[in-house]
Design goal:
The protein is mainly beta and 202 residues long. The chain has a single domain, classed as Pnp Oxidase, Chain A. It is 12% helix and 35% strand. The strands form 4 sheets. Strands 3-2-6-9-10-5-4 form a 7-stranded antiparallel β-sheet, with helices on one face. A hairpin with a 6-residue loop joins strand 9 (132-143) and strand 10. The mean pLDDT is 96. Residues 18-173 form the Flavin reductase like domain. GO terms for molecular function: FMN binding; oxidoreductase activity, acting on the CH-NH group of donors, NAD or NADP as acceptor. This is Flavin reductase (DIM6/NTAB) family NADH-FMN oxidoreductase RutF. InterPro entries: Flavin_Rdtase-like_dom, Split_barrel_FMN-bd.
């Protein structure tokens, strides 16, 4: 099968998200200029550079009380900071609850009953028991093609790792089983890993 996206795929559901999988989930926490905290999951998320460490996520829809975007990007425009909380399998249900479209000013930490702690380097809350959290200052927000598509890039200036996830000096993902996003309404969980050595590694 071949199709041009501009012509449509002719299938019952859009296959694009199912093709580009698995995708890590960035559970993005922000704080608005009004001091209200926000927490929302984004599956268009990834690390994008080592030195300095940088991450990005994309927001692809909008809500009436935020104009051309949603609360996360709106808050980041106001303050210039955000935190990426890593999602473990055990948090799948509360993570999903924070994807609910609610009015600006609603604190999803409180909505989903999630404990939060203050970040160390930025004025923002983080998920208290997340396996890891990346405190970020915004470097740029890029308007992408499409009505409400924005890519947010940030430099990681503070990193939290849960102590039980550090094994023999390595951050061990099998200790918490990262959740990943597939297509449609599907998710997956990482429970096993394997290693490959590059041919030019000594």
């Amino acid at each position: 099968m071949f199709y041009r996206p501009e012509d449509g795929h002719g299938l019952p559901h859009n296959p694009f998200n199912a093709i580009v999988t698995p995708r890590p989930i960035g559970w993005i926490s922000t704080r608005g200029a009004d001091g209200c905290d926000n927490l929302a999951p984004y599956s268009f998320f990834n690390a994008c550079a080592y030195v300095p460490p940088q991450v990005m996520f994309s927001s692809t829809s909008s809500k009436e009380d935020r104009g051309d975007t949603k609360d996360s990007v709106g808050n980041i425009r106001e303050t210039g900071f955000f935190c990426v909380n890593i999602v473990e399998y055990a948090a799948r249900d509360v993570m999903n609850k924070t994807s609910t479209m609610v009015s600006a000013g609603v604190d999803e930490f409180e909505l989903a009953g999630i404990s939060k702690e203050e970040c160390q380097t930025i004025p923002c809350s983080r998920v208290a028991n997340a396996p890891a959290a990346l405190e970020c200052k915004v470097t740029q927000i890029i308007k992408l093609e499409g009505e409400s598509n924005f890519a947010v890039f940030g430099e990681v200036i503070g990193i939290h790792m849960r102590d039980d996830c550090i094994v023999d000096g390595r951050f061990d993902v099998t200790r918490f089983h990262p959740l990943s996003r597939l297509g449609y309404r599907d998710y997956s969980v990482i429970k096993e890993v394997f290693s490959l050595t590059r041919p030019d590694d000594n």
